[in-house]
Amino acid sequence: MTSLAVQLGNSDGWGRHFQPLTKGVSEPAKKSVEFANMAEEHFNKPISNASRERTLINEIFETYWLAQDPGWDGYDATPISPIAVNRAIQFLDSSRFDRIPVPDVTPEPDGELALEWYGNAGSVFSISFGQTNTISYAGLYADKSKIHGVENIASVDKKILQKYISKAVSN
Amino acid sequence: MLQWIRKFYKNIFQKQSQIEPIADNEILARFIFNKKQLNASGAKAAAFLPPSDNLKTSVFRKTRMTEENYQNVKNSVSEKRAQTHKATALLMVPDVLSVGLLVEPEESDYKWHADLVNWPDEKDERKSVAQELALVSQVIER
Fold first, then answer.
1. What is the DSSP letter of A139?
2. B10 has a pLDDT exceeding 50
3. Chain A touched by B19 (CB under 8 Å)
4. Contact A148, A139 (CB under 8 A)
C-alpha cells in the first residue's frame, strides 16, 4: 500500500506550503509524490494567454475541418478557404484580443470564417474573414441597435472593433 | 408533334398554377446540418446565410406539410446530402418579410419547398439580415 501525507505549512494560516511526504520506498510511492508535485504546479500556474490562444486556434482548425467538403452545410456551401483561416489567425495575432473573451468560430456558406461574440441578452458581433484583404462585420445588440460594414484588414481601427465586441459581450 | 407541345406546356402551366401562394401565417423550416451553425441559444446567423453563387436560402413550408411528410422530406434531404440533421430553425413569414427578404416557392425537387430571396448584394448587409433572422428564429429537434 502506498500512502501519501501532505504537510501543510503555517506561513499564512492557509497551509500554502504544500509538501507531499511519503515514507514509502517503492516506485509507486515515489510516483505519487511526483504526481502530487505536478498537480500543485498545475493548479498554482496562472491562467496564461498561451493556453487561451491555443484553445482558440484549436477551435479554428476544428471548424475548418468540419467545413471542408462542398455542401458541408447540407446545401450549396463552399468549403472554408485556408486563406480565410490564415487571415483570421493573423488578425487575432495583430490585435490585443487577449483582453476580450474567446470568440465563437463559425463557418459561413460562402467559404468565409467568422469570429463571433455573444452576450447573455442576445447581442452579437461578428467579423467574417475571406480570401481578400477585407473583412465584413455586423452587430445586433439587445437595445435593438445595429452596425455593419466592410473594412480593409490592414487599416481597420481595431479599437473601434473592440468597442463593438465589448458592447456585445456586456449585453 | 404540335399536340405534344401543347400538352407539355399545359402540364407546366398546371404545375405552376398548383403551387399555393405563401400565406402570412406560415411557419418556415430551415434544416441545419452543421453543429458550428448552432450555439446554446439557438441558430447562429450563418445558418440562414445564402451561398454566394445564388443568394437563395432553402426552407420548407412546414405549416403546409403533414408531420409524416415533413419527417420524410427531412430524412430525404439528409440522405441526399449525406449529412446528419442537427436541428431545425423555424421562422414566421412576417419575420422574413420584415427584414426585406421574400419567400419564393420552388418545388422542382420537393413539394412545399421555398427559397428566401432578395438578399442584399453586400456581405455585411447579408450578415446583418441573417442576425435578425437568427434572433427571431426558434430551434427545434436538437
1. E
2. yes
3. no
4. yes
Cα end-to-end span (Å), chain A: 55
Which is nearest to B140 in space by CA: B29, B25, B27? B29
d(CA A47, CA A97): 15
Q: Please write down the long-range contacts of B62-65, taking CB distance under 8 Å and 24 or more positions apart.
A: B62/B26, B62/B27, B62/B28, B62/B29, B62/B90, B63/B23, B63/B25, B63/B26, B63/B27, B64/B20, B64/B26, B64/B112, B65/B112
Task: Answer yes or no: do A136 and B31 touch at CB < 8 A.
Answer: no
Q: Measure in Å the smallest separation between the Cα of B121 and chain A Cα atoms.
A: 13
Closest CA–CA distance from residue A54 to any residue of chain B (Å) = 19
Q: For the segment A97-117, what is each residue's pLDDT rounded down to a tens digit?
A: 666 678 999 999 999 999 999
Strand partners, B113: B60
Q: List all residues 6 or more positions away from A161 whose beta carbon is below 8 Å from its beta carbon.
A: A95, A127, A137
Question: What ipTM describes this predicted complex?
Answer: 0.86
How far is A116 from A64, CA to CA, in rounded Å?
A: 15
Subunit contact A150:B134, Cβ cutoff 8 A:
no
> Is residue B112 packed enough to be buried (19+ CB in 10 Å), middle (13-18) or exposed (0-12)?
buried
Please list every residue in chain B whose beta carbon sits closer than 8 Å to the beta carbon of residue A123: none
| Partner-chain contact A149 B53, CB within 8 Å | no
The per-residue pLDDT for range B37-56, each reduced to its tens digit, is 999 999 999 999 999 889 99
From A86's Cα to the closest Cα of chain B, the distance in A is 19
A124 touches chain B (CB under 8 A): yes
Q: For residue A55, which amino acid is it?
A: T
B81, B124, B134 ranked by CB distance to A137: nearest: B124
CA distance to partner chain A, nearest, from residue B34 (Å): 6
